[in-house]
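ok so I'm stuck.
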Amino acid sequence: QMSQKVAILDAGAQYGKLIDRRVRELNVESDVLPLNTPPSKLQGNYAAIIISGGPGSCYADDAPEFDARVLEMGLPVLGVCYGYQVMNFASGGQVERATKREDRQEWIEVDPTSPLFAGLEPRQRALLTHGDAVTRLAPGFRVTASVDGLTVGLECAERRLFGTQFHPEVDLTDSGAKVFSNFLFGIAGLEATFTGANRHQAALAEIRATVGDKDILVLVSGGVDSSVCAALCREAVGPERVHALHIDHGFMRHEESETVEGALGKVGIRLR
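replied:
not stuck anymore, here's the structure
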């Protein structure tokens, strides 16, 4: 069965986790991985790749390490900001220091004939944050978005390589969700199957497979993570095999331990 997961290669982006969130909001599973992840770790495990933004310059001597063979794997790739620049640079194009830095919302022109911008109006508002610019396209690429003569979108549709200088993951880009939807479903052909319901069942199955016939000791702080973990363990193996321990160490908020005990009691977990 073909993988339905997306790899997000993180170049040090301030919005890296936001890309992850946007993908998951579209019910597609994603993993955030280092930018220098080699093709051998990606092939067969992921169906598409997103390369995030980042503070570096792809032409600099100290540029973050990136394996250009990722672009030759045949998987669809979306480059965002730095990811867009390194895609062009690694493919034989040119990226240089821009005459001025951009950190603002701009009206840009997009080409709706590009599969990445299918269904969008030609004029869009988007967030641009960059100090570098694509000054020469790599062979086989074409411009798909621009602002004041500056290229802010490109593609090599034959190789399923797409890039945006702007940030589709932020709210200041009006049609960002549609851009991700076009990439994930229209270009990569993924299915929106990573829902809350199947994540729930997958968690229960993993707990049962890991625990076997043993009992489970759960240390419960009262926070979301440990409380959800305790509730899932109870559902997976039954309350008689789950031993939940909460320690009031003297630094809890006033009556917080009692609140924790009461809340977990409502889902059938008795603290010790």
